[in-house]
Amino acid sequence: MLKIIRKDFLYKSLLLNPYRYGKLPTVQLSPIVSSSRAYSKRPITDAREDAPSFKKIFLIGIVGTVIFVAAARSLDKNQPKTSYSAEEYEQVMKGLRRRVTLFKPGELEVIFVPTGDLASVQKYYKKDLEKMKYIEPKEIVNLYRNRTDGKYQALLEDIWEMYADDSVNNLPPGLLVSLLESYMKETCQIGDKVVITNFPRTMKDAIKFESEVSVITNIIIPRNEADSDICRYYDTVSKVKRV
What we know:
The protein has helices at residues 2-16, 47-50, 54-78, 86-97, 119-125, 137-145, 153-163, 175-187, 203-212, 229-235, and strands at 109-113, 133-135, 193-197, 218-221, 240-242. By secondary structure, the chain is of the alpha/beta class. The protein has a domain at 100-242: P-loop containing nucleotide triphosphate hydrolases (Rossmann fold, 3-Layer(aba) Sandwich), CATH 3.40.50. Strand 4 (218-221), helix 10 (229-235) and strand 5 form a beta-alpha-beta unit. Helix 4 (86-97) runs parallel beside helix 9 (203-212), helix 6 crosses helix 8 and helix 8 packs parallel to helix 9. The longest helix is centred in the first third of the chain and has 25 residues, at 54-78. The radius of gyration is 48 Å and the shape is extended. The chain starts with a helix and ends with a strand.
């Protein structure tokens, strides 16, 4: 009975003053670890951040369209222009008049005969046949090819070795007009009437000639070629004579 009272007394004393009989032993509890294996997880992001928004797709579409249109226009500008409306022709001629040509308008009477048919010239210029100067591009090419001191001699000789009599049809763009300009500068005078046969061969040659050498008076073309680009080019300013 005495032991029970003593134990009860000690128990109450410990509750009231736990350090009375010395420091009690401490018990360290280990953290509870889940028996399941811990896996590293990738942070979850909003799927909307990864997927392109409708606005971005729309902007990309617009940019792509602009680039395509610009590229198409660039290609279109690089295409050789072979036909002109009346308004376009007038714009071209205004541009030519602003440039300095070898002969001013009215100083020469120049007639183009693209077919080389001199009989057609007789129909319109019968009285002036003896006074006219005739220029054949093929002869001009050979003339400058045989000039050893000419600046085009080496080039023309190389072309001759490759194409022989067909050299005139295989000249670099613009060279034939440059040769005609040089020849007319040497041989033509103000007031001359000049017939150039088998010319122009292309629209570019026609425009280059009138921008650098002289504005023409007429071009004689067969009726069966009335629909050609060169004929329509000059028909807008009433310079075409048909045979």
